């Protein structure tokens, strides 16, 4: 676009005002302006789509992390309960066992 504008300026400054070239350059500038505008709109549209996808991914990732954390904590709690049970069994065995006699 800038190249086309520079070309138009050269034609106007060089006083070779061939009307057809100037009109052609202006037409080219108009077409390039439309292309630039369309490119910007497309870029904004793609950027919004990407941003929406990132938001969705982060939301899903958070849900998955929360679920995994809850499962881990529940499993950890079950193991802790089993350990308590084993320690209580060991304590009852230890209480039922008479102390060893001291060596003579």
Summarize the structure.
The chain contains two helices and no strands.
Characterise the protein shown here.
It is a single chain. The protein has 104 residues and is mostly helical. Helix content is 87%, strand content 0%. The protein is built from two helices and no strands. Helix 1 runs antiparallel to helix 2 (19-96). The protein is rod-shaped. The model has no long low-confidence stretch (mean pLDDT 88).
Blueprint of the fold:
Layout: H1 2-13, H2 19-96
Q: Give the distance, in angstroms, between the N- and C-terminal Cα atoms.
A: 107 Å
SSE succession: HH
Rounded Rg:
40 Å
Q: What's the assembly state of these chains? A: single chain
H/I helix tally: 2
| Class from helix and strand fractions | mainly alpha
- Mean pLDDT score, rounded? 88
Features:
rod-shaped; 0% strand; 104 residues; mainly alpha; 87% helix
């Amino acid at each position: 676009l800038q190249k086309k504008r520079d070309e138009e300026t050269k034609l106007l400054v060089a006083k070779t005002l061939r009307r057809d070239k100037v009109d052609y350059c202006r037409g080219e500038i108009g077409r390039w302006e439309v292309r630039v505008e369309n490119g910007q709109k497309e870029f904004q549209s793609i950027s919004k789509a990407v941003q929406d996808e990132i938001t969705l991914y982060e939301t899903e990732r958070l849900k998955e992390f929360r679920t995994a954390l809850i499962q881990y904590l529940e499993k950890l709690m079950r193991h802790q309960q089993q350990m308590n049970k084993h320690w209580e069994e060991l304590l009852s065995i230890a209480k039922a066992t008479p102390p060893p006699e001291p060596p003579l």
